[in-house]
Write a structure and sequence with these properties.
This is palmitoyl-protein hydrolase. It contains 2 helices and 5 strands. It is an alpha+beta fold. It has one domain: endopeptidase fold (from Nostoc punctiforme), CATH 3.90.1720.30. Strands 4-3-2-1-5 form a 5-stranded antiparallel beta sheet, covered by helices on one side.
Length: about 100
């Protein structure tokens, strides 16, 4: 939870290929790919990600991708949930429709 008005931020990293990119890329592409990556940012108890319908959110690990391959601790933010959502809404109307 929040400490001193700061909120933890984490990056969830998923391999969309489920490990197949690592196995098949040398044969199919002639070079090694470790994965086909998708990410979500977890803050304020929600996982935010970009998809076909723009900026989406769900509970952490609530996408069809299941558990992330790795989680990176990005530190803390002092941006409260309302201001963060307002910022995402503005991005959703302009750059990330």
């Amino acid at each position: 939870m929040a400490q001193n008005n700061s909120f933890p931020v984490k990056l969830f990293i998923y391999d969309l290929s489920g490990g197949m990119a690592r196995q098949l890329s040398p044969v199919m592409l002639g070079r090694q790919l470790d994965g086909i990556w998708h990410t979500g940012v977890v803050v304020h108890g929600k996982e935010f990600f970009f998809g076909g319908a723009g900026i989406n959110h769900c509970l952490p690990c609530g996408t069809i991708l299941g558990q992330p391959n790795s989680i990176v601790d990005l530190g803390y933010t002092e941006v409260n949930e309302d201001l963060f959502q307002e910022y995402l809404d503005s991005l959703a109307e302009s750059e990330y429709r």
